[in-house]
Amino acid sequence: MTLSDLTTEEPLSAGYDTATRDDPAFQDTFRHSFTTIDDLQMHYVVGGDGPTPIVLLHGFTETWYGWLPIMADLLPGHTVIAIDLPGLGDSTGSLPSHDKVTLAGYVHRLLDLLGFSRGVQLVSHDAGGGIAFALVTQWSDQFSGWLMMDFPIVGGSLRYDQVRTLSYHFAFYEQEPLFEDLVAGRERLYLDYFYRVLTPGGALPMTPQVLDEYVRAYSRPVALHNGSRYYQAWPQDEVDNRLAMTQPLTLPVHVLAQASLLDTFLTAVRDGAPQATGAALDTGHWMLHEAPGAVLTAIREFFGY
């Protein structure tokens, strides 16, 4: 497969372009693409034709759309690929497991199909960081560097039972089917609350248009189910990460985190990447929405734009 083949599959998600179909700037620069791997059709957005691929992995409860404000600025010299994580956003189909090694395999195989087997610059936020860690430890030759935003890597000095106390939602998402039953039909109510509770001052960290798109995406069948399963797989991720940490990473790794969490998150990453660096941003958890300019600057500085 080449980049010219990216639109050959019929999308399984009818609403995938709801937020972009009337956006001429998007239409001029980026395109929605779909590739099926096993029983999962992966949705991703691609722009540019530069020699260096940069891959963007969102978190839960976000989608690729959260990256849009900075994607055009990442284009010089790059092919920009923003991926809807397996089972989330407009990626559609069944998953055999929600452990991050399994989920990372879909991203790895997608990048291979697109011809990006070397030199990939990787950026992640939140749950995308769990998949990113599995990517760079399982297929390190594929990547030239990893910038991780606000995510706790368990398996070394940090354990999941410690992370679980950071916020109510870790335990809430484990309650199946209670979480899904309570939120079904109330996605806007819940997401609005969730974004605000992790933002200093309780303000909505994104525009109403972005909230609309996230509500659409997480109102799709099984999206919240898959997201909650990401959390339920953390104990297995801890086991997998501990094994991966026995072979320390040598590629450059940089951590962006809230000031109060930077030391904890950076120490945890260094258990697998001893030379990792880090910096604090003056934001809450949703830093891409709260301070996109600062995130863009950090990406450019780390990868040497």
Q: Helix and strand layout, with pairings?
A:
Layout: H1 24-29, E1 30-37, E2 40-47, E3 52-57, H2 68-71, E4 78-83, E5 92-93, H3 100-113, E6 120-125, H4 128-138, E7 143-149, H5 160-163, H6 168-172, H7 178-183, H8 187-197, H9 208-218, H10 223-232, H11 234-244, E8 253-258, H12 262-270, E9 277-281, H13 287-290, H14 292-303
Parallel strand pairs: 3-4, 3-6, 6-7, 7-8, 8-9
Antiparallel strand pairs: 1-2, 2-4, 2-5
Helix pairs in contact: 3-4, 4-11, 8-9
In terms of DSSP E residues, the strand content is 15-25%
What's the assembly state of these chains? single chain
Number of helices: 14
Unreliable runs: none
**Helical proportion?**
25-40%
Task: Note the main sheet.
Answer: 9 strands, mixed
Mean pLDDT: 96
Q: What sort of overall outline do the alpha carbons produce when their principal axes are compared?
A: globular
Counting helices, strands and paired strands, the structural category is alpha/beta
Strand tally: 9
Give the end-to-end Cα distance, rounded to a whole number of Å.
28 Å
Helix and strand pattern: HEEEHEEHEHEHHHHHHHEHEHH
What radius of gyration results from the CA coordinates? 18 Å
